[in-house]
């Protein structure tokens, strides 16, 4: 069962879906326009080897870009099951990596670059770095991550990577860290030390898996899974890796921690 696999591993993949291909026919041109849009210049990072493109796609709450169809298909139906029913799609992230990723970006410390290069910049969504000291606070509450590749699969072309089973460790750790504090107050609790220790534990205990998928496929990653982007390898045979990611918000910190 897909749900059992998802809850055990923290992710699942769906085969090529005609509905996703139809959606990409409209969404990919819009995604490419977002990459070249001067208004999105702040998302060109890592020495020009990565377009981060957070909320860069001009889609509506049905996932549709202007003139295109709504987002449909098996992965969407599974996403609605996870969410407990229909929900509004967020504006999607357009993530593009090119050969040479990662390079050290301007303003990126040596330690941060080493972590990106050696540990895939692994992170849990929603635990944001805040202030000049980049202390970690829970500020976003995504339901899941839906990935939609826009090109052919190539395991050497900076795929998304994740640590299988890490979502269970994250849930256990933050249940202890937040304790009996009311969920409305969690956003103000500094969890930097807990988060760093958590990542070290996951690296030691959980297998790192590259999620290699091609155009028309889809994958859903658990909202609490530790994940990142692998470095580009010389043997890649494609000129870029583009993926479109949806991370709809629930706005509910208790659901972020406790939902399946």
Structure keywords:
globular, 12 strands, seven-stranded antiparallel β-sheet, 7 helices, 260 residues, three-stranded antiparallel β-sheet, Jelly Rolls, alpha+beta
Give the topology.
Blueprint: H1 2-9, E1 11-14, H2 18-36, E2 44-45, E3 50-51, H3 74-83, E4 93-97, H4 110-119, E5 127-130, E6 135-138, E7 144-149, E8 160-163, H5 166-178, H6 192-205, E9 208-211, E10 218-222, E11 227-229, E12 241-246, H7 253-258
Antiparallel strand pairs: 1-10, 2-3, 3-4, 4-12, 5-6, 7-10, 7-12, 8-9, 8-11
Structure, described:
It is a single chain. The protein has 260 residues and is α+β, with helices and mostly antiparallel strands. The protein has a single domain (2-258), classed as q2cbj1_9rhob like domain (Jelly Rolls, Sandwich), CATH 2.60.120.620. Helices cover 31% and strands 19% of the residues. The protein has seven helices and twelve strands. Strands 1-10-7-12-4-3-2 form a seven-stranded antiparallel β-sheet. A hairpin with a 4-residue loop joins β5 and β6. The longest helix is centred in the N-terminal third of the chain and has 19 residues, at 18-36. The mean pLDDT is 97.
State the end-to-end distance: 15 Å
Query: Order of helices and strands, N to C?
Result: HEHEEHEHEEEEHHEEEEH
Oligomer classification: single chain
On the 0 to 100 scale, the average pLDDT is 97
- Radius of gyration over alpha carbons? 18 Å
Q: How many domains, as an integer?
A: 1
**Helix count from the secondary structure assignment:** 7
CATH superfamily: q2cbj1_9rhob like domain
Number of strands: 12
Kindly report the CATH topology.
Jelly Rolls
What summary fits the major beta sheet?
7 strands, antiparallel
Strand content: 15-25%
| Helix share bin | 25-40%
Backbone structural class: alpha+beta
The coarse overall form would be globular
The low-confidence parts are none
For the largest beta sheet, what order do the strands appear in spatially? 1-10-7-12-4-3-2
